[in-house]
Amino acid sequence: MAQTLPRRLPGTKAALEDGTISRYKAEIIAGATVLLEDEEARAAEQEVLDRAARLTPAGLRAAIARAVIKAAPKKAKERRETAAKNARVERWLQDTGNAALMGCELPPAEALAADEQITARARELRKAGLEGDMDQLRARAYLDLLLGIDSRPRQDGAGTAAQPSAPAGFAARITLTAPLATLVGLANRPGELGSLGPVDPWLARDLATAAAANPRTTWCLTVTDSQGHARRPRLRPARTQEPPQTRRTGTAGRDRVHVHSRRAARNLAAPHSRTRTGPDHHRRPDHHRPL
């Protein structure tokens, strides 16, 4: 820290010295930018310093990770791919006498899918009457899925052991948020994956491509202005039944989306809004029909 801050992160050094941020937060910024060149590290630093004091450590970690991807997207990709070669499962004995089991450097999408499966299994255990809070039930579900056992209580109150678990059969539901320019390869801005946080643009594109191959995938289109604030698009329904097409135009930093499909226009309208445009203004939109 003594060598890194004065040379690479002068803004972080100044904020630490005047008490604006804690040492722990300074370590978060320094650790996240360790693989960047000096200029790239300072660019990432400037993205978060104005709000570092009011962010929680977790919020700062996500913010600086996003800034690092923005400053050097290819290096973020290389870092993820290199670290993936060190994928492993670790176990150790805790001070309480219990054990810990942890997977490290796992593929993000598969880790989220596994987490979804653990939660779904925990809900099944709770519905079956197994006692415990959600953390305890998730831990029990985690072991059930790994060991192929079923901890759901019998009707007589006893648990079952060494029985095959119920087949999963459900798909994980995760959220990937990414700029359209990133998804179509026109920019390398970071995306956001569920509760995991920022992901590099290459991973965002790979995940979006995989999702597009599944007919059960659902999509949400959000139009934003140049500052990233969500805007309600101006809709102009067409008189034909041709497939939906969008055309993006910009004037003075503002974007406008024209949707050339009457059904698409209704579905893109904001939920619960009473305002309508075009010949179908008197009809309520069908929010349950896919775009």
Please tell me about this protein's structure.
The chain is of the alpha+beta class and 291 residues long. The protein has 3 domains: 4-71, no CATH class; 107-171, no CATH class; 176-268, no CATH class. It contains 11 helices and 9 strands. The strands form 4 sheets. Strands 3-4-5 form a 3-stranded antiparallel beta sheet. Strands 1-2 form a two-stranded antiparallel ribbon. It has a two-stranded antiparallel ribbon with strand order 6-7. Helix 2 (10-17) runs antiparallel to helix 3, helix 4 packs across helix 5 (57-71) and helix 5 (57-71) packs across helix 6. The N and C termini lie far apart (52 Å).
Top keywords for this entry?
41% helix, 11 helices, disordered C terminus, 291 residues, 3 domains, 3-stranded antiparallel beta sheet, alpha+beta, two-stranded antiparallel ribbon, globular, 9 strands
Describe, in short, the structure shown.
Helices cover 41% and strands 12% of the residues. It has 291 residues and is of the alpha+beta class.
Topology:
Blueprint: H1 4-8, H2 10-17, H3 23-32, H4 38-48, H5 57-71, H6 73-84, E1 88-93, E2 99-104, H7 108-127, H8 134-147, E3 176-177, H9 180-183, E4 191-193, E5 197-199, H10 201-212, E6 223-224, E7 230-231, E8 246-251, E9 254-259, H11 262-268
Helix pairs in contact: 2-3, 3-5, 4-5, 5-6, 7-8
